[in-house]
């Protein structure tokens, strides 16, 4: 099963790059007189996430939570309408929740992500983007988790142990280039990996966070769902 997932992630990353290289080569063969953009293709984006989780777990209610995102990217110049973008992105996401007892709280997750996007230039002002991403969970925090009382059984580490450290999925969005190098970007990231581990894979350690759905339910099918709104600049 893990080998199958790894192959799927690899193919998701390979497809945008393959399409870009094929189209770029064809465009150069068709019209060698076209001038390639002089822009370096390096840039950055800064903005807000509106994160939630898809799926659910019986009576646990999930709500959107805002968070910061920062990205640097490389978008090689192209002679055609189809291009390619590789990004390195820090994403602060998570969700607000209400548990079955009516207690509210917030889960904050810090991810380091690597989106690989195929781009489609509708005009020089509008660009559509679609591709895949992989992410690694750096840290997690629950507003209701108990405070650490010693050097052992760290509550924060216990919360992290409940979650899958790797995430992957699909992404799509639109980017506006109003003038010069300024960019306005809106994107949706849909995670394919479960946020929490299956109960059988979790070691039962104490103390456990107050928000520990694995202690009550089995195999919760919650996945990351994030809307990103950002501004940036391409050099």
Structure description:
The relative contact order is 0.19. The protein has one domain: Beta Barrel (Porin). It has an 8-stranded antiparallel barrel with strand order 1-3-4-5-6-7-8-9. With 235 residues, the protein is of the alpha+beta class. It is built from 2 helices and 9 strands; from the N terminus they run H-E-E-E-E-E-E-H-E-E-E. The radius of gyration is 20 Å and the shape is elongated.
DSSP helix count?
Answer: 2
How many individual β-strands?
9
Please state the oligomeric state of the protein chains shown. single chain
How many whole angstroms does the radius of gyration measure? 20 Å
CATH topology: Porin
Average pLDDT works out at 78
- Helical coverage, percent range: 10-25%
Summarize the model shown.
With 235 residues, the protein is an alpha+beta fold.
Present the secondary structure layout.
Blueprint (H helix, E strand, L loop, with lengths): L1 H29 L11 E13 L6 E3 L1 E10 L7 E17 L5 E18 L4 E17 L12 H7 L4 E11 L5 E10 L31 E12 L1
Antiparallel strand pairs: 1-3, 1-9, 2-4, 3-4, 4-5, 5-6, 6-7, 7-8, 8-9
What labels describe this entry?
235 residues, alpha+beta, Porin, eight-stranded antiparallel β-barrel
